[in-house]
Amino acid sequence: MNTTPEIEPQLMPPGAGLPLVELTVARMRFAWRRFTGDQAAFTAHFAKERSRIRTLLHGLATDAASRRVLIERPRGLEDSSRYWSVWMTLDHLRMVHRGIVRVIGALAKGVTPPGRASTAAVKPSPDVTADVVGAYEASCDDLVAAVQTAGNLKTRLRYAHPWFGPLDAAGWHALAAGHMTIHRVQIQRILQGAGCSTIANGRE
Q1: Cβ(119)–Cβ(162) under 8 Å?
Q2: HEC string of the chain?
Q3: Which of 151, 70, 155, 65 is nearest to 110 (CA)?
Q4: Terminus-to-terminus CA distance in the chain, angstroms?
Q5: pTM here?
Q6: Region 117-143 average pLDDT
Q7: Distance of CA 171 to CAs 32, 95, 102, 152, Å?
Q8: 20-201 has which fold?
Q9: What percentage of the chain has pLDDT greater than the value 90?
Q10: What pLDDT was estimated at residue 199?
Q11: Residue-wise pLDDT tens digits, 92-105
Q12: pLDDT tens for residues 44-70?
């Protein structure tokens, strides 16, 4: 049962990653998804999850959306991310989308992005407000636009993801869609833990 603790729970540190067996399975599933999918399928998947998240947010009260809830960890989610609010989850998605937009844009131009991707670097602040909704939606629009304008996503250059290794632009596009699914499930569990009936609008 999901609960909201009175004190900060003791979780794994940001960037600790997934359990080894789960990570191994995730890598195999992601490789298969990339092998069997294409740009149109990944774009449609992203759009579907965006729509489902929007449905979950519809009519959601500010106090419920800003409340941090300790949830059972969904597959694919780091332990450090189990005590977030809905607003925090959207802010994380916003940061990840912005990063993927930069990576796709650079790889499509034949440029290797500087630095290294880090899951610890995209953890949200508990102080995020309802303003994040518009920023999140804008980041979704920017990602869709980046994919549409990049041309051939099967780029020669690659940029490494900390869990899935070097990916071309097509790989980062595929990752964005699956990433939305994980965090849509997270939002559903947060709302369930907060006692919100909104989760009836979406299923895991």
Answers
A1: yes
A2: CCECCCCCCCCCCCCCCCCHHHHHHHHHHHHHHHHHCCHHHHHHHHHHHHHHHHHHHCCCCHHHHCCCEECCCCCCCCHHHCEECHHHHHHHHHHHHHHHHHHHHHHHCCCCCCCCCCCHHHCCCCCCCCCHHHHHHHHHHHHHHHHHHCCCCCCCCCEEECCCEEECHHHHHHHHHHHHHHHHHHHHHHHHHCCCHHHHHCCC
A3: 155
A4: 16
A5: 0.93
A6: 97
A7: 12, 18, 14, 12
A8: Four Helix Bundle (Hemerythrin (Met), subunit A) (1.20.120)
A9: 90
A10: 55
A11: 999 999 999 999 99
A12: 999 999 999 999 999 999 999 999 999
- What per-residue confidence (pLDDT) applies to 196? 81
Query: Which residue type, as a one-letter code, is found at position 187?
Result: I
Single-letter amino acid code for the residue at 190: I
Residues 6+ apart with CB under 8 A from 39: 147, 153, 170, 173
pLDDT at 49: 98
The amino acid sitting at 11 is: L
